[in-house]
Amino acid sequence: MKELLLRRYPETRRHLPRDVTLGGMECEDGERQPWHQHQHGHVVMALRGVVRVLTPAHTWTLPASRALWLPPNTPHELHAVGRMQFCTISIEPGTVSWLWPNALVLTVGPLLRELAVDMLSDGFHYAPDSRTALSIPLLLRLLCEAAAPGEHGLPLPSSAKLLAICEHMMMAPATDYSLERWGEELGASGKTLARRFKDETGMTFGRWCQHMRASEAITRLALGASVGDVALALGYQSPSAFIVMFKRLFGRAPQQYLAVAER
Predict the structure, then answer these.
(1) E strands in the chain
(2) 171 has a pLDDT exceeding 70
(3) What is the CA 261 to chain-centroid distance, rounded?
(4) What does the longest C-alpha to C-alpha distance in the chain come to?
C-alpha cells in the first residue's frame, strides 16, 4: 500500500457533459479503481457491500449508509470489500456555493439513496427537460443536508516505518503490539515512534488502533458478521466491551450506525 499511497498522477481537465452527473459500477470482492483524481467534486456512495476509499493521508470505510465527498484534485483509490455496487455523483466547481473544501463523510438516507439510484438510468448525457435534470436541485439539497462532520477518516502517517506499522495493523487488526514492541522489531525507540505518530496523524497510537478496529468492524458487520464474531475477531474480551468502544467513537451502537438514516 505504501507505493500506492505515494503515487501521483498528472492533472487532466475533462469537462463534464452536465454540471452534475451520476455514474454507477459493480465490482467483485478485492477489485480496485486505481489511483486517480478528478478536476470536479466527487461523491462516492456505496449501494451494496462496502467501499474503502484511500487518499494519501486517510482511509474511509463506507457501508451503504454512508458516502464520501472528495474535493476537486483529490488523489484517491477505491477498494471493493465483498461484492460491491456503488455510484458516483460528479459536480462541476461553482455549481453550488456549499461545496466543501475538504473530504467529508455524508449520511445516506432512503430518499437520497433511492433518488440517486433512479437518476442513474439516464446516464451522463441526460436531456435538459428529463426527470434527472428536474431532480438535480433536490439531489444537491439532500447532499448539502447529509454532511456528518463528526465522522472522520482514519489518518495515515507519512513516514515509512510508521506506515509499515499501520499496514500490518490493518491486515491483522487483533494484533496488540505496543509501539515499544514495534520499536524492538524496527530498531527504533518506542518514545520516538509515539511522538512521531502523534505528530503525523494527530492521534496517539492507542486511539488510532481503536479507530482502525472500528473501521474494520464496520466492514465485517456490513457484510453480515454478528457483533459477537466481530468482537472476538478484533480481540475484544466480550461483545459488550466492543459495543462500548464503538459507541464512544461514533455515538451510537454498531447496528444503529449501519442502519440507513431515516430522512
Answers:
(1) 20-27, 32-36, 41-54, 58-62, 66-70, 76-91, 104-107, 154-155
(2) yes
(3) 17
(4) 66
Residues 99 and 215 in one domain: no
Average pLDDT over residues 254-258: 87
Q: What are 191's three cell numbers?
A: 518514545
- CA 207 vs CA 43, 149, 245: distances in Å: 28, 19, 11
CATH code of 212's domain = 1.10.10.60
pLDDT 10s digits, 175-187: 888 999 998 888 8
3-state class of 27 per DSSP? strand
User: Rounded to two decimals, what is the model's pTM?
Assistant: 0.86
Which pLDDT tens digit goes with each residue over 221-240? 999 999 999 999 998 989 99
**Does 193 lie in the same domain as 83?**
no
* Residue 151 counted as domain residue: no
Q: How many residues are given for the chain?
A: 263
**Three cell numbers written together for 217:** 468492524
